[in-house]
Amino acid sequence: MDYPTTLFGYQQIGTLREEMAVQVQIAALPKREGTQYIINAIDVGPQTIPLFEQCLQCFSEKIYPDFLSFFSEAGRFFLVFPNHKAFNLRMGFQGNPDEVSIGKRFALLHEILLKLHEACRLPLAVVIGAATPENIHIDPKGDVHLQFLLESKLVLEEVDGSMLYERIASIIALLLEQELESRTNQKLRIIIEKCEKHLYQSIPELIKELENAEETCSATEHHNWMAELYQRYQKQIQKAAGIASVGLTVGVLLYLSLSLFSASDTNPLHEKVLRIGNQTYVADESAASTLAPSVQQQTASDPAEASTQLTGEQIAFEDHVVRSGETLDAICETYYGNAAYREAVAAYNNMPQDTQLQAGTILKLPNPENIVVD
Fold it and tell me: Which of 109, 112, 132, 116 is closest to 179 using CA atoms?
């Protein structure tokens, strides 16, 4: 394909990719020195018309800030996104991911998944194009940026969510390569398998399972560190304390290891709810697996006194990813039809009612049928 060096004010610098029906270039605006852009040029045709219509609607509605410009000319349409000058995930982690602590790698993975979830407002083909280690960039501050580079197969073939989750599985495998090799991290391998089989309904659902798996991985890492430390100083321990003392040390290490693994099996997704609105729950001694609500006097018609009918483990909820500028009142008004339910939602999420919500935060919203007003 042959393109002019200047297009709608953009000065083209170079070509990143050239495939059938798609060309991706880096460009600049003369009046904005130091700022670069990615321009995806797609041939208009029967196979690309659906993508054209989806992109036009997204750009018209201004639903994604990094979708900077959309225009068409001479049988092609163009999608413009910022070019982030930073190292990509592949460069930073291939071959040596364990040099970064497990906590930081899980935090980075969480941020990447939130970015992909936000990008899902764009056409699926565009999101899948960004979901590769090469197109996930990390700047010097540690912030994550997506590079939107389209591919021929994404433009010309029908795509579905399974392709996105397959790519997410590859990202997880890159960041957590060492943890996946450990026999004790079964939860992590199950997550990879579920991604490859497209068993997740949403990215927030995947994020929650990764949070659970992180506890197991952290416990395993700590156990391995203790074992390595013991091996390193085994002779000194034996000389200092004798065989009996060594046996005691091994017993203590074994006890700590078992305690850590037991703690790691606790599933934060199923923690028992202690308080919803003004309804307090206390442990039911007759049945350890349930929670019994204590009796409380509540106002007859005030939704602020909302509480659940069900025991803690039975309460169903939906995930809500907070968008920029959203407040707890606005979320409750949208979801329940009454901002007064903020007390129940705040208590369910274990936070003050006046919390300033940050974009990307995941709130649990108890299903309306599980909340009653006494």
Answer: 109
Angle, CA of 2, 5 and 6, to the nearest 5°: 120
Question: Using CA of residue 17, residue 50, residue 63, residue 168, what is the dihedral sign?
Answer: negative
Q: Strand, helix or coil at 201?
A: coil
Interstrand relation of 291-293 and 279-283 (parallel, antiparallel or unpaired):
antiparallel
Give mean pLDDT, residues 173-187. 85
Cα separation, 175 vs 94, whole angstroms: 8
Contact 276, 308 (CB under 8 A): yes
Give dist(CA 120, CA 117) in Å, integer.
5
Condensed to tens digits (0 to 9), the pLDDT of residues 348-362 reads 888 888 888 888 788
| 317, β-bridge pairs | 366
C-alpha triplet 169, 170, 172: angle, nearest 5°: 65
pLDDT digits (tens, 9 = 90+) for 94-132: 666 557 888 889 999 999 999 999 999 999 999 999 999
Q: Per the structure block, which two tokens stand in for 257? A: 């290891």
Contacts of 365 (CB under 8 A, 6+ apart): 317, 318, 319, 320, 331, 335, 345, 348
Q: Give the model's pLDDT for residue 57.
A: 95
